[in-house]
Amino acid sequence: MSEKKERIILDAAFQPQVRTETDTRRLMLDVIIALMPALIVAVLQFGVHVLLVVCCSVVSAVFWEWGYRKLFHKETSIGDLSAVVTGLLLAMTLPPTAPWWIAPIGTLFGIVVVKQLYGGIGKNFLNPALAGRAFLLSSYALIMANWSIPNALSGTVDGTTMATPLAGLYSGTMPAYFDVNHLFMGYIPGSIGEISTLAILIGGGYLIYRNVISWRIPVSFIGTVAIVTLLSGREGFGHFDWMVYNLFSGSMVFGAFFMATDYATSPVTLNGQLLYGVGCGLLTVLIRYFGGFPEGTTYAILIMNLCTWAIDKGFHRHQFGVSKEDIAAAKAAKKAAKEAAK
Amino acid sequence: MTHTFKGGVHPNYMKAPQVPVNVVTPPAQVVIPMVQHIGAPCKPLVAKGDYVKMGQKIGENPAPVSAPVHASVSGKVVAVEPRPHPLGDMVMSVVIENDYQDTPCHDLAPLTEEERKSPEAILARIREAGVVGLGGAMFPTAFKIRSGIGKVDKLVINGAECEPYLNGDHLTMLTFPEQLLKGIELVRIACGVEKAYYGIEVNKQDAINLLNSKHPEQYGIEIVPEAVKYPQGGEKMQIKAVTGREVKPGGLPAGVGACVISTRTCYAVYQACYEGKPVIERIVTTGGSALDGPHNALTRIGTPLGYLAEQCGGFVKDPKKVVLGGPMMGICATSLDAPTIKGTAGVLYFTKQEDRNLKNPQCIRCGKCIQVCPMNLEPVFMYMYYKKGDYENLEKYHVNDCFECGSCSFNCPARMPLTHAFKTAKLMLQAKAAKEKAEAEARAAKEAQK
Question: What CA–CA distance (Å, rounded) separates A259 from A263?
Answer without folding.
Answer: 9
